[in-house]
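Replying to the earlier thread about multi-chain prediction with a worked example.

Input:
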Amino acid sequence: MKNIFVLFSFLFFTISLQAGGGWTQPKGKGYVKISEWWLIANQHYTDQGRIDPNLTNGLFNTTVYAEYGLSDRLTAIVYFPFFSRSYVNNEISGTTGELLTAGEAINSIGDTDISLKYGLTKNSGISVAATLTLGLPIGNSSGGSQGNLQTGDGEFNQLIQIDAGTGFPLGSTNAYANVYVGFNNRNNGFSDEFRYGIEAGVTLFKDRLTAIARFIGVKSFKNGTPSAESTNTSVFANNAEFFSFSPEIAWNVKENWGFSAGVGTALSGKIIYANPSYNVGVFFKW
Amino acid sequence: MKNTFYITLLTLLFSACIGDDIIMDRVEETLKITVQAASIAAGETFQFDARFTNNIGNTEEGRVVWGSSDESILAITEDGLATAITQGNVVVTAEVTLEDGSMLKEEMDVEVSMITVVVEAPTSRAGVIATTTFYDLEGDFTLTEINGGVSLEIADNYKATDALPGLYIYLTNNPNSISDALEIGAVTVFEGAHTYELEGVGLTDYDYVLYFCKPFRVKVGDGKIN
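Result:
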């Protein structure tokens, strides 16, 4: 699986909270989050699900995520990494101290997602929404001398996702839970995917702090081009799978803005980085 | 609050810089006598030769010092040119002084007699490829001298993962690095017998077959050429 796919896999399971699960934005209401997401990886899950080391690869994304209620049922969502950086470290001989291979880095915009979410239920105890996400391949899919530095995967994917969420009191606090399943149709030789997830959150300190626990899974249909036959020359090429845990907190400084921070780590996986990713951001809502 | 923000920002900026990964590429130094004679005719000369590879697997010229156990029977210069003087038996030594002051030494028995008998070098070497990671890789191989080069024949019990893009095969004297290795090419066969023919390569030039994921700089496995 390509680096960028790992990137967006992690991004996906850290971004999905703001999409609101089964809930849509009321008409005219919106949410914007500017965040930094990063992953520095020196080990990965192999195709056998075991962990092997690799040359350190850093991935950094500075992003804007926004959602806006076009109507009470229809929400437009955009995820735009306006600055994306990928690098690999220098290789230094432990015997002589000499530089064996110089590290490399690329900077560009990243692949961008645009989505439309439609609320299937109204005034129901369980909110259900369907989302169509289009992954636009506008990043760099083959940077660096080996083509293994990427800020985009070069493939146009279409993700259809169904979310179901409900809110409920938990003692003196408010809580929510959400589950989803999705099918990600990918082209350009990439395998299609089944995606699933469950998350739960609770608000504390008079609703100023929201603590979220999130589990996300991706299963590959393995119906794409075998990695070895792919022109994509990264160890993270195709047919990746993972099951991840991503806790996150959001602190509402004021009613209309706040900070968030989260971490995502793959508890198991195949052909995916094994190091945790992190994100911090500031959000605004109106 | 403001200080925390700036500290976080600076940490991120420095984290986004290219750093250094230390590659543990030390290997045992090796010394092999590559041209040798079992017997040298009295009154004749013979040029011995040896190959020394250092602690990162690079071949170093001019490091080998030659000697004879009895200069009255067989005299030898420091660069390995032997002169057979009178009939008898000697031990010829090739020595290299290592960085830590220790000696690496190879020796062979040589007879000074009526005829010169050159020790024939082997025409093939063999080994077993094994994974050094959690990726599938295994199989036997044979390296055979052919006209103008060598042929690397991978046996039919060979199997390699096709989950890694950019898997390459090399010949090297350092299985921990592809620096100074000979890149044979991208792996395109992942099961069964196949052959690589390499022009301009000597049978004793390299001691390892190495499989390496080139784009991601990950060693996948190797095989010692015995």
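Chain A touches chain B through 50 residues (CB under 8 Å).

Feel free to reuse this layout for your own posts.
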